[in-house]
Each structure stands twice: as structure tokens, then as C-alpha cells.
Amino acid sequence: MDFLEKLFNIKNKVVVITGGSGVLGGQMAEGFLNAGAKVILIGRNEEKLNKKVKELNRTKEELIAIKCDVLLEEDIIRAKEEIISKFDRIDVLVNAAGGNMPGATVNLNETVFDLKFEEFKKVVDLNFYGTVLPTFIFGKTMAENKAGSIINISSMAAQRAITRVVGYSAAKSAIENFTRWMAVELATKYGDKIRVNAIAPGFFITEQNKSLLLNNDGSITERGKSIINMTPFKRFGYPEEVVGAVLWLASDASKFVTGTVIPIDGGFSIFSGV
Description:
By secondary structure, the chain is α/β, with parallel strands linked by helices. It is built from ten helices and seven strands.
């Protein structure tokens, strides 16, 4: 193995991906599997998990799925125990569970004051606390081993004021702060081999945002057109385009990188529109 291969090597790393049955989570899982990692998909919908496992078509030594609600502490502890029993350790945690919810979206004929607080709270709980709880429970195992990489998922909604998705935006902003805080906490108390970073995807077509970006006939909505106009690449992202950054953050190629939030957005976050 030459120097570059060793630097980027993640073969046999044990990778836990919450939200692993989703579009981006599933794509990251495929990327890790192709790189030789052992992958555990976490999700609360057993049917979707099984479908994703079937699609990825790997042996049980390479890929398993565990039904688990990232908002239930007892579920995560049970999942952690199952993973440790089978693989003995956790090397990488990708907190990909999340997404917006229709009830927490300000409709075109509404204002923010029309939102029900319960719906706002649901989307904050899923995105923020659904990242905090797995980080505390799976991350403790990494801390005990004094090694590991935690990768959170932020969003352009944390970096720019994206209309209509106030709860989602607030949760993703909290994730960015939590990423920096945990990076400092873990490094100062457990050493330089445990790192916490985040990626901030731009606009990708997922189950949660499809109705906001695409019409029923597949054409782009007015909101989608506005996004593309503000994106120098003039298109939405492809799910596989998040994989390279995630693999880099999981490998020793980024071993002096912690507390960062990396945009994967086709230039959306830097473009003024002029």
C-alpha cells in the first residue's frame, strides 16, 4: 500500500449511518462499502431499511441494518450493544437522520405565526436531538477507544436565511454549533485521534424536499428555479456528490481536521446573485 492509499484507507472501518435508508444516507453507505468499510444502517422504518440492504446487496459481514429510533435513548443503547458485540468497535458515525417535515413548513398562503409549535418542535427534535443522542451514545464508545470520526449533516439552511423552513433552519444551525463544541470537548479530553466535523449539503432531491423543488410532472418549481439561479453550477446536486467529502472526513487524510463545516453546494453559499 503506497502513501496515498494508506492515507485514504478506510477498509474494515466500522461505520454507523443513522438515516441510512434515506437518499443521502444510502448513497454514503454505498460509498463506504465500495471503499471496503463495514456498514451499519440505522433507521426507524424497518421496511425501508430492508429495502436499502437488498439494494446494496452485500454480505452480513459487510452490511447490517438495525431498527432504531434516534430519539429513543434505549433504542440507541441497544443498537450500540449489538454493534459492539458483532464488530467490537465503532470507528465512524454519520448522523444522517433528519429532514424537513410538511407540518413545519410555512405554506405560501401562511406566515410563520400560522405554524403549530408542536410541528416546529418535531422537526427540531428529529434533526438536532436526533444528532445529539447518537453522538452521546455512539461517541462515548469512540471516546473510550480515544479514536473515531463523527460526521454531522448541516444544511444551506443554517448558513443562509432559507424561507419557509424555520424549524429545519434552526435545528441545522444548532448542529453546526454542536459540531464545533463537541470537536473541542472530545479533542481536549480524549486526544487528537477523535474528531467531529460536518458537511452542509446544498440542494439535492430527497423525499423530504421533493414537493418543494419539483412539480408532479417532474418540472422544477418556482422555488427550485430560484435555488438554481443562486447556484453557480446551475443545477441541483447528485447524491453521489456527497460521498467524497464524507470518505475524506472518515479517513486519516483529514486527521488534522476537526470542528469544520464543509459546504457541498455547487457554490450556493458563496454566490451573492450578482
